[in-house]
Design goal:
single chain, alpha+beta, 4-stranded antiparallel beta sheet, two-stranded parallel ribbon, about 30% helix, binds zinc ion
């Protein structure tokens, strides 16, 4: 019991950046953006994004969004195209998600593979077909992938989504309600994002 507690505490104060299984072999760099949701950290190779995440110690308890915080890339003067695109994408998204059809999604490295694994297809289908202001259930997303039996696999893909916000797993809800975000630890972030997109009714 003690050990479990200590372990849980440790993982909370010292979040370890897990090397995503989806990363390619190209060199990867890290960039940070200020945003209304706090610091967003992006890791990318020259081909596209590997990971996009909010600060590791964020929780429902300490989540304090600041709508007046504009999107700003921190301290890099020479940035690759994908990061420039990312900055424009975030700026447009946080300014008004209704304008997302005017910006191009920053490339996601793993989407460039020729044979996508099932969960990669889930991420891509979600990012390609579920826009701001829409929600989809786990089941409907499985149907859209022509695999209606794969509801649990869709859920697993959502839990393991390496590029939050850009691959909009916050738009995937349960038939009966909101559904979990980040294993249930960031429900307030899911609600914030959906409200920001004009959604106040979560179930389909
Ligand atoms: Zn890559």
């Amino acid at each position: 019991m003690q050990l479990l507690k200590a372990k849980a505490f440790f993982s909370k104060v010292a979040p370890k950046a897990k090397k995503p299984k989806t990363a390619c072999q190209l060199p990867e760099s890290e960039y940070r953006f200020w945003s209304p949701l706090g610091c967003i950290t992006v890791r990318a190779c020259e081909s596209g994004l590997h990971t996009t995440g909010l600060q590791g110690d964020l929780s429902d308890e300490n989540f304090a969004p600041n709508p007046n915080q504009g999107v700003k890339l921190l301290g890099s003067n020479k940035v690759p195209q994908v990061i420039k695109k990312c900055e424009i994408w975030f700026r447009t998204y946080f300014d008004d998600p209704k304008n997302m059809n005017t910006v191009e999604r920053p490339d996601i490295c793993v989407f460039k593979k020729s044979n996508l694994a099932f969960r990669e297809l889930v991420w891509k289908t979600l990012a390609d077909t579920v826009g701001p202001g829409e929600v989809i259930t786990y089941g409907a997303l499985a149907d859209r992938l022509k695999n209606p039996g794969a509801v649990r696999a869709v859920g697993s893909a959502m839990r393991n989504n390496p590029n939050g916000i850009i691959v909009p797993c916050h738009r995937v809800v349960r038939t009966s309600g909101l559904g979990l975000y980040h294993g249930g630890t960031l429900q307030s972030v899911k609600v914030w994002l959906l409200n920001h997109e004009g959604i106040t009714k979560y179930s389909k």
